[in-house]
Amino acid sequence: MDMLPVETPVVLNSGERLAMGTDEFVVLADCARTGGALFAGLVKMPPGGGPPVMHRHDPGEVYHVLEGEFAFYVGPPGGDIRRTVVSAGEVMSLAGGTPHTIRNESDAGAVAFVVHAPGAPMEGFTRAAAALAEDGDTTMAAVLDIAAEHGIELLGPPVE
Question: Comparing C-alpha atoms, which of 104, 100, 41, 40 is closest to residue 68?
Fold first, then answer.
């Protein structure tokens, strides 16, 4: 049986920081360290943060909320979209291909440990989105381009 490389543990908050708008992703395990199997880290989201639209992608995701709370919107656009609030100590799993978005609708910051599997599409998108934000190019056209390059389909707003 092939085994992934075993690396020295990473201390929370000590990884590379990628800023995407007001949100931040702290990289704890990247594809280089996991043979492409995983991309994992801390998602830090201020009040009002999160992706603006529903989206879907092939990688599955698991969120373990460490601080605050996140609102997950799950379901097909124009269909029955379910809102689920996940608080500190709780876990939310999303199968690959599931239409969803995540928001911080509270008055306090929120932090979750998230794992994406396989990791490459999400790592590629996260790094490209952070580079766009750093360059100041946050136009919807630029975001649509990098989303498409990394297999992420943007579906529109979760609810009116």
Answer: 104
**pLDDT digit string, tens, across residues 74-103:** 998 778 899 999 999 999 999 999 999 999
In whole angstroms, give the CA distance from residue 18 to residue 97: 24
Give me the helix-helix angle, 120-135 and 140-149, nearest 10°. Answer: 160
Secondary structure element (H or E) that encloses residue 141, with its range: helix 140-149
Cα 67 from Cα 111, distance rounded (Å): 5
| Residue labelled with tokens 């990791």 | 119
Q: Is the dihedral of CA 40, 50, 82, 79 positive or negative?
A: negative
Q: What is the pLDDT of residues 127-146, one digit of tens each?
A: 998 998 888 767 778 888 89
Cα 114–111–147 angle (5° rounding)?
A: 50
Longest dimension (CA), the chain: 49
Task: From residue 133, give the alpha-carbon distance in Å to each of 8, 16, 111, 144, 146.
Answer: 31, 16, 20, 14, 12
Q: How far apart are CA 89 and CA 114, in angstroms?
A: 13
What does the DSSP 8-state code read for residue 53? S
| Cross-strand partners of 44 | 24, 111
Total length of the chain = 160
What are phi and psi for residue 135, nearest 5 degrees?
Answer: -80, -10
